[in-house]
Model the fold of this input.
Amino acid sequence: MAAFTATARSIVQQLDPSLPLYRVRTMESALAESMRTRAVYSWMLAVFAGLALVLALGGTYGVTSYLVTQRAFGLLAAVGLARQLGDMLFGVPPHDPIIHAIAAALLAVAAVIANWLPARRAARTDPMVSLRI
Done:
């Protein structure tokens, strides 16, 4: 690299002695330095996105667990409250079974995703460890 820098400096001085020459480096080293910064930012973004996903799943698990312990009947309440909410719906009848089915399916999928990891961990636990007093 030092020989390259000296050669580049002498060629530039021969062409135009008033031109300054600084930070002489190869294109590979300039590209590597540029990509290193982007790689660090990408890694940090991935870590924070993973943390956000873990927090969201934990919150969903907590809410689902709470609702199960309270024995809330969301679908029955949705059908019962549809008349009061009918004025706010545009283009959808209050008792549309397809909309209720889609909402129930989406909530079921969210509950399965949020509860999958704790259920898998509980399934791996030895029953004798769980039954100890």
